[in-house]
Automatic annotation (TrEMBL), chain A:
PANTHER family: COB--COM HETERODISULFIDE REDUCTASE SUBUNIT B 1. InterPro entries: Cys_rich_dom, HdrB/HdrD_reductase. Keywords: Oxidoreductase. It holds the Pfam family CCG. Residues 3-82, 148-236 form the Cysteine-rich domain. It comes from Desulfonema limicola. This is Cysteine-rich domain-containing protein. Gene3D superfamilies: 1.20.1050.140, 3.40.50.11810. One of its GO terms (molecular function) is oxidoreductase activity.
TrEMBL record, chain B:
This is 4Fe-4S dicluster domain-containing protein. It comes from Desulfonema limicola. Keywords: Iron, Iron-sulfur, Metal-binding. Coiled coil: none annotated. The keyword Transport does not apply.
Length: 296, 209
């Protein structure tokens, strides 16, 4: 089956490994992701802080492009892009006047209601558990991840129905279970990592990240799993800094869900570009793979 | 900032409250100060306890000065926890967003100028090219900061910031997480035109009052 694909700016740049993994994993599962033509920046949270209209127009143009190309569903891996796009769609549904105003200036007009999905939804709605089981070559029993959702998967600044439980989402845990990986329960799965504050207000952001890290370590986790490129980058690139500041000894890899999927399907960490993390993320996967062979 | 004393200004209350409510689309008078937003506020520990409920109180009392001049509106990370938990559906993050815009319009110096510079640079870059070019955007943002600091002869801060960013940049280069190509979207003109048209419409509306 074919689904429209909106990578967003970060998946083409600092988090291009996530783009690479997403395309690779879904093509193995028979889901064809078609990148939409000439997409533009969604505006992220910044647009809403500068101009409300802009915050709707920027993602709206992408919706129009996907709909005009005849797609009924569009997947957006980046949480910020996902959130902005789904909010823009709902705002235009609730306000036809606004939609008409935007349509008046767009070549690819917005029609109705294309379904906007996270990659978790694509996994859980379009890939049968049987197919996943067939693809499994490894069971990473020694992996003790905590699933980190961050803010933008379930909380919206507008009345948009969330695709998962707002305070205690389960999609990642459900998927990991299909891979034979059991995630740990913990308290900080939807806590904020500070997002752009890591750049413009680092003191605040490092304190927030340290809280997340402390809880994960206290629960005995040996890694984080996330779907948001911003959360991944923040917890990974700043880990040395916030651990030093808050006297935390542990260091934990911050995996994308696609990396654990790939590992379970027997794709080598090198092929998935796991070596592009700031905190060493190769060793843990390789160790677990070796232990698995010993068990056999 | 410790828990501040709010000024009640009867003559300002209604117009200011009305303005914030209209621009943010939030029914602030529904707030009964249950403090669920405060309990959930991600940056509550970082703002000297100036929590979302206090911000709402300041607006309701007509304390424009406090509402436009506090750490919360700049430290708010738009995590939307406050709004998700509010029993009366008030999205306080939409209020912090609104107050940022009002502060800018009224030429009130941002409590955290770096935050303001960041969002401006982000949107400008996204608009200019249609896609955000991370290196160009970070360059413009750092330049804005450096110029501002240089004005007050705060060269030490400039050097420190430059060092931190250079270190991060180098680490990213090693991990191939810097992108040297240039991204753009051909249809960006459509967004710019719509934005200008809407700005003009808003200005006309404001003029008519």
């Amino acid at each position: 089956m074919e689904i429209a694909y909106y990578p967003g700016c970060s998946l083409q740049q600092s988090s291009s490994l996530y783009d690479h993994q997403t395309r690779m994993i879904f093509s193995r599962l028979g889901v064809e992701l078609k990148e939409i033509e000439d997409w533009n920046c969604c505006g992220a949270t910044s647009a809403g802080k500068v101009d409300d209209f802009l915050a709707v127009v920027m993602p709206a143009r992408n919706i129009g492009i996907a709909e005009s190309a005849g797609f009924t569903e569009m997947v957006i891996p980046c949480s910020a892009c996902y959130s902005r796009t789904i909010v823009a769609q709902k705002r235009m549904q609730d306000n036809p006047e606004l939609r008409d105003e935007i349509n008046s200036g767009l070549t690819a007009k917005i029609k109705g209601s294309i379904r906007i999905s996270t990659i978790m939804e694509v996994f859980l709605n379009h890939v049968s558990p049987d197919l996943i089981k067939q693809k499994l070559t490894h069971k990473f029993r020694g992996l003790k991840p905590v699933c980190y959702y961050g803010c933008m998967q379930t909380r919206f600044p507008y009345n948009v129905p969330a695709s998962d439980n707002v305070e205690n989402p389960q999609a990642m845990e459900t998927l990991l279970k299909l891979f034979g990986i059991r995630a740990l329960d913990w308290n900080y799965k939807t806590y904020c990592c500070g997002a752009s504050a890591a750049v413009n207000d680092p003191d605040t952001a490092l304190n927030l990240m340290a809280k997340i890290m402390k809880e994960a370590a206290a629960r005995g986790a040996n890694c984080f799993v996330t779907t948001c490129p911003m959360c991944q980058m923040n917890l990974d690139a700043n880990q040395e800094a916030f651990c030093k500041k808050h006297d935390i000894k542990e260091r934990l890899p911050v995996y994308f869900i696609t990396e654990l999927a790939g590992a379970a399907f027997g794709i080598s960490p090198e092929d998935m570009q796991v070596d592009r993390h700031f905190i060493d993320s190769m060793t843990l996967l390789k160790e677990l793979e070796q232990n698995e062979h010993k068990d056999k | 900032m410790t828990a501040s004393v709010l000024e009640f200004s009867p003559e300002n209350t209604r117009p200011f409250l009305q303005e914030v409510m209209e621009q943010s689309g939030q029914m602030l008078t529904a707030c009964y100060q249950c403090r669920k937003c405060a309990a959930g506020c991600t940056v509550g520990d970082e703002t000297g306890s100036f929590t979302p409920n206090i911000l709402i109180r300041a607006i309701v009392l007509g304390d424009r000065e406090t509402a436009l001049n506090n750490e919360l509106i700049w430290k708010c990370v738009s995590c939307y926890t406050c709004g998700t938990r509010c029993p009366n559906d008030i999205q306080t993050a939409r209020i912090t967003e609104t107050l940022k815009k009002m502060a800018k319009k009224a030429h009130v110096q941002p409590v955290l100028p770096k935050v303001a510079a960041f969002h401006d640079a982000f949107v400008e870059s996204g608009m200019r090219w249609g896609r955000l070019n991370e290196m160009e955007f970070m360059g413009v943002y750092e330049l804005k900061n450096a110029l501002r600091e240089a004005k007050t002869k705060n060269y030490e801060t400039v050097v420190k910031e430059f060092k931190t960013q250079a270190e991060l940049g180098l680490a990213m280069l090693k991990l191939k997480r810097l992108h040297f190509g240039f991204l753009f979207s051909k249809g960006r003109g459509e967004i710019k035109a719509l934005y200008r048209k809407n700005r003009y419409k808003q200005a006309l509306k404001a003029k008519r009052g």
